[in-house]
Amino acid sequence: MRAGLTKHSVMIAGHRTSVSLEDPFWAALREVAEARGQSVQALIGAIDAGRGGQNLSSAIRVFVLEAVRAPPIQQM
Protein backbone atom coordinates (compact mmCIF):
# COMPACT_ATOMS: atom_id res chain seq x y z
CA MET A 1 0.00 0.00 0.00
CA ARG A 2 1.28 3.43 -0.92
CA ALA A 3 2.04 5.70 2.04
CA GLY A 4 1.89 9.05 0.23
CA LEU A 5 -0.47 11.78 1.36
CA THR A 6 -3.86 11.97 -0.31
CA LYS A 7 -6.12 14.98 0.10
CA HIS A 8 -9.91 14.58 0.23
CA SER A 9 -12.55 17.29 0.48
CA VAL A 10 -15.19 16.74 3.15
CA MET A 11 -18.17 18.70 4.41
CA ILE A 12 -18.11 19.26 8.18
CA ALA A 13 -20.87 21.19 9.92
CA GLY A 14 -21.83 22.80 6.62
CA HIS A 15 -18.30 23.86 5.73
CA ARG A 16 -16.11 22.26 3.07
CA THR A 17 -12.56 21.51 4.13
CA SER A 18 -9.78 19.28 2.91
CA VAL A 19 -8.02 16.59 4.90
CA SER A 20 -4.64 15.14 4.00
CA LEU A 21 -3.83 11.65 5.28
CA GLU A 22 -1.58 8.81 4.23
CA ASP A 23 -3.36 6.16 2.17
CA PRO A 24 -3.24 3.50 4.93
CA PHE A 25 -5.08 5.88 7.27
CA TRP A 26 -7.78 6.53 4.64
CA ALA A 27 -8.20 2.78 4.19
CA ALA A 28 -8.44 2.16 7.95
CA LEU A 29 -10.86 5.08 8.37
CA ARG A 30 -13.12 3.59 5.67
CA GLU A 31 -13.02 0.20 7.45
CA VAL A 32 -13.93 1.74 10.81
CA ALA A 33 -16.77 3.77 9.25
CA GLU A 34 -18.14 0.68 7.50
CA ALA A 35 -17.96 -1.39 10.70
CA ARG A 36 -19.93 1.34 12.50
CA GLY A 37 -22.47 1.70 9.72
CA GLN A 38 -21.42 5.30 9.07
CA SER A 39 -20.15 7.18 6.09
CA VAL A 40 -16.55 8.35 6.23
CA GLN A 41 -17.80 11.93 6.17
CA ALA A 42 -20.09 11.31 9.19
CA LEU A 43 -17.24 9.66 11.08
CA ILE A 44 -14.91 12.57 10.30
CA GLY A 45 -17.65 14.94 11.55
CA ALA A 46 -17.81 13.03 14.84
CA ILE A 47 -14.03 13.10 15.18
CA ASP A 48 -14.05 16.82 14.41
CA ALA A 49 -16.67 17.49 17.08
CA GLY A 50 -14.52 15.88 19.78
CA ARG A 51 -11.04 17.00 18.79
CA GLY A 52 -10.80 20.21 20.82
CA GLY A 53 -7.93 22.29 19.46
CA GLN A 54 -6.10 19.37 17.86
CA ASN A 55 -5.37 19.47 14.12
CA LEU A 56 -8.08 17.49 12.26
CA SER A 57 -5.66 15.25 10.35
CA SER A 58 -3.83 14.44 13.59
CA ALA A 59 -7.11 13.78 15.39
CA ILE A 60 -8.14 11.33 12.64
CA ARG A 61 -4.79 9.52 12.84
CA VAL A 62 -5.09 9.17 16.64
CA PHE A 63 -8.70 7.99 16.30
CA VAL A 64 -7.70 5.34 13.74
CA LEU A 65 -4.79 4.19 15.90
CA GLU A 66 -7.07 3.85 18.94
CA ALA A 67 -9.70 2.00 16.86
CA VAL A 68 -7.09 -0.45 15.60
CA ARG A 69 -5.70 -1.02 19.11
CA ALA A 70 -9.15 -1.55 20.69
CA PRO A 71 -9.98 -5.14 21.54
CA PRO A 72 -12.65 -6.70 19.29
CA ILE A 73 -16.21 -6.62 20.57
CA GLN A 74 -17.32 -10.04 21.80
CA GLN A 75 -20.48 -11.43 20.21
CA MET A 76 -22.91 -13.18 22.57
UniProtKB/TrEMBL annotation:
Residues 6-67 form the Ribbon-helix-helix domain. It holds the Pfam family RHH_4. This is Ribbon-helix-helix domain-containing protein. It comes from Methylobacterium phyllostachyos. The lineage of its organism: Bacteria, Pseudomonadati, Pseudomonadota, Alphaproteobacteria, Hyphomicrobiales.
